[in-house]
Amino acid sequence: MTTIHHDDPTVLQIKDLNVFYGSFRAVKHVNLDIVRNKITAIIGSSGCGKSTMLRSINRMNELIPTCRIEGEIIYRGRNILGVDVDPVVIRSQIGMVFQKPNPFPKSIFDNVAWGVKANQIQGDLYQIVENALRQAALWDEVKDKLAESAFSLSGGQQQRLCIARAIAIKPDVILMDEPASALDPIATLKIEDLMRQLAEDYTIIIVTHNMQQAARASHFTAFFNMDDDRAGYLVEYGRSDQIFTQPKQMLTESYITGRFG
Asked: ∠18-41-175 over CA atoms, to 5°?
């Protein structure tokens, strides 16, 4: 078991998580504590279960008919994998930003307002949208064209719009699956700066193949590898400065120095 012992409160406790697609086990025996208001990066080579792990946290994997999950994910004192827990409610508390920007075919304003309306959140809708766009560092760029199509925005702006859409409903945790992999270096740095700002109010878990990004932007890093049976497992978890400068496992050191992966 790889857990971290610290004074920081945990927002999620992942206990002995196993994820199967049919008979294939994609992730095995993962134990991980996620710290509140910090950025946790999940790194590892392709196919080692990083995205599967991430999508288990807000029950997105259950949309795949062959998926089966064992273990526990404790959030706010209860196992969110329980049959008595509504996944729609969980997804409103644990938001998701995907690899490629996926704005709706609506106006900029309506993209951000959509979740607010769907979740019947009370308050001044315009103010909620403005606040979300401000938090996503996008307001100044779009405030004069809120009625225009979201597709009129650049790729980096679209991704920040998707982040604004996720935070408009005030989630507790934001999951980000390679959020900058489709963006240019300048847009990527904007997303990293934004993540650091958002961590003051949200807990962020990011899957990234970019180790420099993980080292720059995250407080904690979890390194996953693939076993002989192709199941992803957690090799090492710790503070990012420790993982990237003094890893405890030889496998971690081999990966971050580029000897494999």
From this structure: 70
CB 185 within 8 A of CB 194: no
Quick one: which of 238, 205, 211, 203 has its CA closest to 222?
Answer: 238
Angle of helix 155-167 relative to helix 185-198, nearest 10 degrees, comes to 20
Phi/psi of residue 72, each to 5°?
-135, 145
CB 219 within 8 A of CB 39: yes
Is CATH 3.20.20.60 the right assignment for the domain spanning 10-102+172-256?
no
**H helical segments located in the chain:** 50-57, 87-93, 108-118, 125-135, 139-142, 155-167, 185-198, 211-217, 240-245, 250-256
- The structural domains of the chain, with segments of one domain joined by +, span 10-102+172-256
d(CA 63, CA 82): 16
Tokens of 13: 């406790």
User: What's the pTM?
Assistant: 0.92
As a whole number, mean pLDDT of residues 65-90 equals 93
pLDDT single digits (tens) 44-59? 998 899 999 999 999 9
Least confident window among 1-15, 39-53, 93-107: 1-15
Classify 36 as helix, strand or coil.
coil
